[in-house]
């Protein structure tokens, strides 16, 4: 019960902090609209690159444009949801360096909620909107033999993928408590991870695919469930039931990230600033 109460308190604090930043961001609405549009355009450049690539080839490792677009959209939409919720996590290192992280520790509010809700910005919705639009086009254009399980798996894949990315954000923030400034290392697994997942697993070496399947299970964001939806071979010849394991993988990742965060927080020593 105590653990549940702490979680509810954290969610309430996060909602209040995020709401404060939303009200602040909406003060200048014209600026907000232009920033949102600019974010949407900039995040769409990756897909433009894919379109340009397919203007020269008919397939990529045997995958058609709609199939690659499905991978792209699932990755971008999941990451966009995670970035909306926890996109401020990489800034933790700078807070530790300048001493402002100590201020968060003395407030009667869960520290993770403060770090996650800090500078919450609705402009990040541009990435989600762009990914969702491409996802809709891919679902219509790809040659998919629809079943009930596939219909249910698509939203489950996106939500589970977002939870996996949130776990990576939190684990990266925990690592920054030790390293004090490792934002680029964290970005390699978040931004770098979502970029990698936009392409078929056959493009990459088997050792890398094994690593993002069994060590840092980013493959469960889209590669594994997408194989079931698109009727493609599973990465590493995995059994068919793993396509529905993304929620369990996400829960495990969140549990481990929470443990890493609590361990890092207990070991924190002020920089003395």
Automatic annotation (TrEMBL):
UniProt cross-references to PANTHER family, sorted A to Z: INTEGRAL MEMBRANE TRANSPORT PROTEIN, SLR0610 PROTEIN-RELATED
Transmembrane spans: 30-57, 69-87, 152-175, 208-226, 238-261
Top-level taxon in the UniProt lineage: Bacteria
Keyword check for Plastid: no
Name of the protein in question: ABC transporter permease
InterPro entries recorded: ABC-2_transporter-like (IPR010390)
Record's keyword terms, sorted: Membrane, Transmembrane, Transmembrane helix
Pfam family, one: ABC2_membrane_6
Regions annotated as coiled coil: none
């Amino acid at each position: 019960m105590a653990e549940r109460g702490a979680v509810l308190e954290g969610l309430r604090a996060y909602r209040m902090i995020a709401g404060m930043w939303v009200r602040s961001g909406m003060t200048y609405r014209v600026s907000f609209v232009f920033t949102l549009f600019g974010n949407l355009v900039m995040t769409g450049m990756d897909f433009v690159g894919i379109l340009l690539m397919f203007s020269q080839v008919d397939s990529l490792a045997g995958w058609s444009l709609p199939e690659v677009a499905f991978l792209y959209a699932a990755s971008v939409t999941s990451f966009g949801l995670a970035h909306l919720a926890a996109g401020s996590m990489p800034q933790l290192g700078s807070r530790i360096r300048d001493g402002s992280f100590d201020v968060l520790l003395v407030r009667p509010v869960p520290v993770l909620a403060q770090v996650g809700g800090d500078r919450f910005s609705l402009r990040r919705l541009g990435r989600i909107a762009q990914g969702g639009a491409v996802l809709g086009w891919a679902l219509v254009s790809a040659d998919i033999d629809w079943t009930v399980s596939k219909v249910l798996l698509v939203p489950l894949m996106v939500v589970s993928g977002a939870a996996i990315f949130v776990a990576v954000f939190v684990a990266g923030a925990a690592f920054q408590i030790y390293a004090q400034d490792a934002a680029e290392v964290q970005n390699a697994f978040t931004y770098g991870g979502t970029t990698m997942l936009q392409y078929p697993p056959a493009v990459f070496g088997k050792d890398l695919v094994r690593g993002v399947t069994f060590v840092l299970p980013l493959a469960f964001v889209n590669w594994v469930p997408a194989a079931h939806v698109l009727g493609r071979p599973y990465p590493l010849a995995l059994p068919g039931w793993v396509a529905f394991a993304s929620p369990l993988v996400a829960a495990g990742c969140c549990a481990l990230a929470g443990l890493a965060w609590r361990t890092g927080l207990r070991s924190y020593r002020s920089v003395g600033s």
